[in-house]
């Protein structure tokens, strides 16, 4: 049996990320071919592999091999972020890069705008003995319904303090004994604002818990009472109600829509016109963030139109927490689709946002880059508006910031510009930022290398012949080829796409450059990659640009 005839069968071996981290038994094809392939796999993936021949079958060519992987590839791509590749790179597949980046950012930077938050006092309210000391929860519940105001207040405060503990607040126990309806009844006590405040605080912290715990607060009917309290003349009661509603809205789009149906927006917007404390304004802005998120079901156009004017004012607020949350709210609105982005553009947000790139606070820069970055994942017309507002005046400083997150976000933004039409690619070239991008291909941070590679790859694919000749003149080939030695599947794919696009424009001279800088050796090694997309890409490149006739002349296919 000719081992070469078994190649299609060998391709059925598990993908690298499908293999269990400890042991996988694999029925292999021809023994001598298998050994070669696994050794090549070891060489290309830098893995330690032990092969143990367990048994031979009647056909001596077959063997059962146990493959032990002692260490797993540290840059194995997250399946949640897996991109779809094909041999033919289309405009859309290169352009749409919003989802991966957004998911990563929202997982890693929850501090920017938390979905929910508990109200935990900075210090103990009081060390003095209270009327409820030594009583059980059931007894405290009875006291919370007392006709004696002092006893009732002490009981409500006691439970609120339990819910405000930093670790493991007994939310479930307090729900189970029936405290939620008691708290809600306290919200109606206009004669006792301190009782309203304590009850609202307790319900806020219950709503900060799990989905079921939040549902309990909603299903017991708290929402309309909270909305009514937004008109309270007592600012602490009003603020605590805003906080509670923010936690409910943060649970999901269904909860957001329910709160909106109860008439949230008018009293909420009215609060912005009042003279309120800065902490209150921070909480209010955070509620706007929660209203604007939930990509699975974006907010209605009616709500978007209601929040745009206040958000426009808040993005320039001198308090950084208010400003950053307002920018994030706009960023989440851009998830609502092209029509919502058009509404944002019509309100002149783009110029205002771009001017924020000059702010020195890193959080402001990151939130702003995310927002305008989402805009340029839209239509060419929307992308052009961002360019026309002078965004390239800020790019050099952002790339020179020395901040990994800022550089990475800026490159992500640029990659969506170079995924545009040829005029937009030319705008990027004219800005002279591409030289810095090429330098960043050699940055020590792999994430930055990857984003820089996306910029160049999109430019090579979508740009004109003149654009490609420009990056060739900047000696793009050696740093690109160097990236092929990094054990990162996504990065290798992007680089191979770039190399293939550049070869298409200058097949002979670039093929020689690739060979001279050691790129061909790396490409040939990647023929043995267990990743099908990489295997197909390198096979295509070799067959088209590195096949020679008997006289040593390049055969272009």
Automatic annotation (TrEMBL):
<dbReference type="GO" id="GO:0005634">
    <property type="term" value="C:nucleus"/>
</dbReference>
<dbReference type="GO" id="GO:0005737">
    <property type="term" value="C:cytoplasm"/>
</dbReference>
<protein>
    <recommendedName>
        <fullName>Importin subunit alpha</fullName>
    </recommendedName>
</protein>
<dbReference type="InterPro" id="IPR011989">
    <property type="entry name" value="ARM-like"/>
</dbReference>
<dbReference type="InterPro" id="IPR036975">
    <property type="entry name" value="Importin-a_IBB_sf"/>
</dbReference>
<dbReference type="GO" id="GO:0061608">
    <property type="term" value="F:nuclear import signal receptor activity"/>
</dbReference>
<keyword id="KW-0653">Protein transport</keyword>
<dbReference type="InterPro" id="IPR016024">
    <property type="entry name" value="ARM-type_fold"/>
</dbReference>
<dbReference type="InterPro" id="IPR002652">
    <property type="entry name" value="Importin-a_IBB"/>
</dbReference>
<dbReference type="InterPro" id="IPR000225">
    <property type="entry name" value="Armadillo"/>
</dbReference>
<dbReference type="Pfam" id="PF01749">
    <property type="entry name" value="IBB"/>
</dbReference>
<dbReference type="GO" id="GO:0006606">
    <property type="term" value="P:protein import into nucleus"/>
</dbReference>
<dbReference type="Pfam" id="PF00514">
    <property type="entry name" value="Arm"/>
</dbReference>
<keyword id="KW-0813">Transport</keyword>
<keyword id="KW-0472">Membrane</keyword>
<keyword id="KW-0812">Transmembrane</keyword>
<keyword id="KW-1133">Transmembrane helix</keyword>
<feature type="repeat" description="ARM">
    <location>
        <begin position="221"/>
        <end position="263"/>
    </location>
</feature>
<dbReference type="Pfam" id="PF16186">
    <property type="entry name" value="Arm_3"/>
</dbReference>
<dbReference type="InterPro" id="IPR024931">
    <property type="entry name" value="Importin_alpha"/>
</dbReference>
<dbReference type="InterPro" id="IPR032413">
    <property type="entry name" value="Arm_3"/>
</dbReference>
<comment type="similarity">
    <text>Belongs to the importin alpha family.</text>
</comment>
<feature type="domain" description="IBB">
    <location>
        <begin position="64"/>
        <end position="127"/>
    </location>
</feature>
<feature type="transmembrane region" description="Helical">
    <location>
        <begin position="47"/>
        <end position="70"/>
    </location>
</feature>
<keyword id="KW-0677">Repeat</keyword>
């Amino acid at each position: 049996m000719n081992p070469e005839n078994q190649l299609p069968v060998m391709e059925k071996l598990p993908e690298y990320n499908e293999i269990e981290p400890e042991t996988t038994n694999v029925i292999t094809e021809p023994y001598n071919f298998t050994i070669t392939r696994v050794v090549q796999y070891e060489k290309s993936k830098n893995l330690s592999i032990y092969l143990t021949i367990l048994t031979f079958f009647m056909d001596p060519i077959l063997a059962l091999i146990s493959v032990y992987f002692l260490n797993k590839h540290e840059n194995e791509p997250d399946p949640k972020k897996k991109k779809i590749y094909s041999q033919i790179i289309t405009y859309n597949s290169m352009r749409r890069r919003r989802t991966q980046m957004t998911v990563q950012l929202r997982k890693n930077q929850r501090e920017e705008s938390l979905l929910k938050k508990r109200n935990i006092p900075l210090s103990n309210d009081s060390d003095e003995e209270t009327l409820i000391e030594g009583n059980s929860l059931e007894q405290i519940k009875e006291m919370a319904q007392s006709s004696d105001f002092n006893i009732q207040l002490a009981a409500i405060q006691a439970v609120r303090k339990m819910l405000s503990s930093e670790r493991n607040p007994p939310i479930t126990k307090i729900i189970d004994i029936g405290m939620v309806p008691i708290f809600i009844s306290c919200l109606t006590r206009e004669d006792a604002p301190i009782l309203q405040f304590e009850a609202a605080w307790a319900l806020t912290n219950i709503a900060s818990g799990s989905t079921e715990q939040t549902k309990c607060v909603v299903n017991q009917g708290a929402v309309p009472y909270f909305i009514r309290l937004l008109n309270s003349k007592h600012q602490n009661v009003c603020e605590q109600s805003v906080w509670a509603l923010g936690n409910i809205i943060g649970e999901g789009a269904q909860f957001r829509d329910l709160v909106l149906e109860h008439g949230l927006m008018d009293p909420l917007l009215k609060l912005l016109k009042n003279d309120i404390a800065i902490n209150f304004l921070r909480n209010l802005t955070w509620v706007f963030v929660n209203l604007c998120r939930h990509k699975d079901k974006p907010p209605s156009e009616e709500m978007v139109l209601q929040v745009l004017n206040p958000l426009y004012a808040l993005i320039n607020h001198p308090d950084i927490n208010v400003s950053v949350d307002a920018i994030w709210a706009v960023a989440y609105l851009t998830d609502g689709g092209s029509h919502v982005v058009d509404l944002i553009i019509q309100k002149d947000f783009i110029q205002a946002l771009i001017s924020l790139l000059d702010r020195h606070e890193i959080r402001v820069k990151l939130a702003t880059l995310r927002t305008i970055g989402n805009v340029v994942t839209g239509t060419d017309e929307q992308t052009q508006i961002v360019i026309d507002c002078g965004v390239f005046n800020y790019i050099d400083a952002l790339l020179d910031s020395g901040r990994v997150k800022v550089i990475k976000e800026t490159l992500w933004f640029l990659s969506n510009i170079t995924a545009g039409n040829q005029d937009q690619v030319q705008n990027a070239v004219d800005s002279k930022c591409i030289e810095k991008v090429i330098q960043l291909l050699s940055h020590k941070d792999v994430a930055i290398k990857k984003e820089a590679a996306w910029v160049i790859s999109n430019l090579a694919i979508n740009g004109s012949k003149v654009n490609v000749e420009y990056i060739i003149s900047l000696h793009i080939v050696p740093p690109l080829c160097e990236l092929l030695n990094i054990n990162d599947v996504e990065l290798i794919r992007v680089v191979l796409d770039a190399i293939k696009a550049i070869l298409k424009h200058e097949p002979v001279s670039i093929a020689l450059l690739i060979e001279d800088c050691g790129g061909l050796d790396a490409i040939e090694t990647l023929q043995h990659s267990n990743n099908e997309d990489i295997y197909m890409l390198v096979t295509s490149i070799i067959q088209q640009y590195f096949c020679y006739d008997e006289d040593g002349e390049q055969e272009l296919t």
